Structure prediction request, 531 residues.
Amino acid sequence: MNIPQYTWEDYQTDYADRHLLHGVVAKWAAERPNHTAIIDFDIGRELTYRELDEQSTAMALRLIELGYRHGDFLATLLPLTIEHICLEYACFKIGVIHAPLDTRLKADEVVRSLGLIQAKGFVTLGATAAGDFTHVAEMVRESCEYVEHLVVCGDVDCQLPRTSNGREFFDVGPATRHAPALLNAFDSLMKAVRPTDGAQVIYTTGSTGLPKPALLSHRNITVQNLCLAGGCGWFDIRRMLVNLPPSHVGCQGEELMTTFFTGGTAVILHRFDPEKSLQAIERYKVESMGQIPSMFQMQWHLPSYSKYDLSSLRWAMFGGQQVTRPFVQQLCDIPMPITPLSIRKPMSTDGTAGDELPNGETGEICFQGPQVFIDYVGNAEAYRNTVSSDGYCYTGDLGYVNDRGLVLAGRSKLVIKPKGFQVHPAQIEQHFAQLEDEVGMCAAVGQPHDMIGEAIVLFVAPPPGHDVSCAHLQSHAQGIASYMRPTHYVMLEAGGLPLNRTGKSDYHRLKEMAAAEIERLRALGQWDVEE
Prediction:
């Protein structure tokens, strides 16, 4: 497969009119104003590029009216709706930084996330059919003095004091739309926005620790859009399914914004639903989709899966977690270097990137160039530990390059070191995933062990309606090197493997569970002994 290669010169010359996120929308609003930009599957509403441009400008005037200026942070706790998208593009137009939060966050997690960026405003759900989020607004109101504007959007008007009503916030009337002072301020603010300015904060998933706010610039995102559009063939895709959470980079900078970059149509779902996703593909003849593995699994297990016509699909992509060969085979059954990569040694003590490694040797996967995010907001040390002083971003992934391309070996932060060897969880997990009828999901973590330094603990959840014995797992373990064999197995119920909010194995939680299990074993004298 020949993947197109794009250079910095290509981006600067051939795509000079698409360096700003809102500039992309303005381009299509001028060139194809009546082309559909968004189809909201949940309510059947469509929005053209002209309407998206006009409505995001109206929301920008609302923000200016409330006192927002370049560099302010506006956080949202909303589903993926047309109003949400218009609001974030309003932010882009005037240099306000949009920070979408996961709607599954607990109230104290929301408060922590807002505090990391000192958000000037927060637009959140209230009482809705999907759940009552009013308690989140209450905690933010009581705990976050820096939040000047707290907007609550619900099926009924919020009665909390010191909050604004969502309906009134999004309903921008003529007095605001045509106010000369606001229009002049809008023109000045929009002209001042540069491609290198921060546009959006995406919080890391926190699979190995607490989430951090990664600040992405317009250039970071639009360069990524160009590479995805060219590399994945999306310039020829007319309709993309966007069903990931709006707090996920896959939703924002990849699927949604790349669709806009190419002038295509985004078919959106407010929240992921396996059945609705299939219905949307069939109804709107969606040609491309991208999901994390667990989302595909939920769809494949639907009794009605085979009845849907998915023949319009040309591309089906996955990412975010390692998968088994049977997973890829089933995915294939669906009919369907601006930023140079290098493999390097760990970062040097002086903050520069480690030496580049030769092909075939496993090391840290690094990128350098305009897609590298520009900051961890308020956490300079974390940024220095991730991006070297000479501009190399350490992704946290291990891998090597061979004659067929890049081969992923796992996450560097998750490496387990039994008896001095380096073992990545994926090596163990892929071996046990071969037991398709007995192992639905599994995840390996390391725990301190007096005799071998670090021992492997494997968590196993069987598929629904199936069981697996420890003896069977131990027998299967004979098929891998002795130092890679788990010292202890933890059996979970079907569907019981902890996942983080993006559907990946929650290794942070698993390590906590393993530590508690090891304490129990120590008390019984069944740990720190020779194998």
